[in-house]
């Protein structure tokens, strides 16, 4: 089944060229299937590229997904025209009375700041608190994973001596968990960040479990034991050239970046993470969302109050 997107979203052209199955809302309403209602809070500067990355993964499952794109009201992106945001995005105030099967929050280039110093921190914490009773399952990526772990569990972060950039080998730690079902014992995933979690606190927390980690990159996938919150510290959604473009950007800025590790082979990008990325998102949508969320969206609050 396809992912459902707005009629004129620019990412549709890219997806069509790549033969990713999607449909417009106009076509979807004629089908007798309730699509999963998924909100995606896009905190990345390049909105359209991030949309494409997540749509590739959400559009490659057997489930129909209807996406609602969200942006912050308290911070205006400098890289995306206001007209684009007004056409394709909504703010929290516009959806606060709705219920969603799932919420995805992307990474954000604010990780070197203390959480409370981020311009939209208060708005984000309001969204996280709202999600507890309005969203069945949430998926947090990179900085959003750090922010959510801090908000929900008080788990902090610390600055790394140098940026962690590259594609790293990971090991599955909880093989019987549905979220990592079908994963190879060892798999690859990209990381791109300046900070790391307080892993001692994470491993010790009785409500959390680490599902996959890396000797070089640390914890990769963690989740609440009730399955409702998934935290991914890397960027499985990254496309082939994202790390390359970030490296070139940092070079041009005079930051003297480290070459992304395990990324180039003979001068070419070697994509090692694509199959795992698709499996991660399909497992999450199937086992953590579709198999558990109430069919009637208005029943979500009742279900969560009694869980």
UniProtKB/TrEMBL annotation:
Transmembrane segments: none annotated. Pfam families: HTS (PF04204). It is found in: Cytoplasm. InterPro entries: Class_I_gatase-like, HST_MetA, MetA_family. GO terms for biological process: L-methionine biosynthetic process from homoserine via O-succinyl-L-homoserine and cystathionine. Gene3D superfamilies: 3.40.50.880. The record marks 192 as: Important for substrate specificity. It catalyses: L-homoserine + acetyl-CoA = O-acetyl-L-homoserine + CoA. One of its GO terms (cellular component) is cytoplasm. Coiled coil: none annotated. GO terms for molecular function: homoserine O-acetyltransferase activity; homoserine O-succinyltransferase activity. The active site is at 142 (acyl-thioester intermediate), 235 (proton acceptor), 237. The record marks 111 as: Important for acyl-CoA specificity. SUPFAM superfamilies: Class I glutamine amidotransferase-like (SSF52317). Substrate binds at residues 163, 192, 249. The keyword Amino-acid biosynthesis applies. Pathway: Amino-acid biosynthesis; L-methionine biosynthesis via de novo pathway; O-acetyl-L-homoserine from L-homoserine: step 1/1. Keywords: Acyltransferase, Amino-acid biosynthesis, Cytoplasm, Methionine biosynthesis, Transferase. Its EC number is 2.3.1.31. It comes from the Bacteria. Belongs to the MetA family. Transfers an acetyl group from acetyl-CoA to L-homoserine, forming acetyl-L-homoserine. This is Homoserine O-acetyltransferase. It comes from Sphaerochaeta globosa (strain ATCC BAA-1886 / DSM 22777 / Buddy).
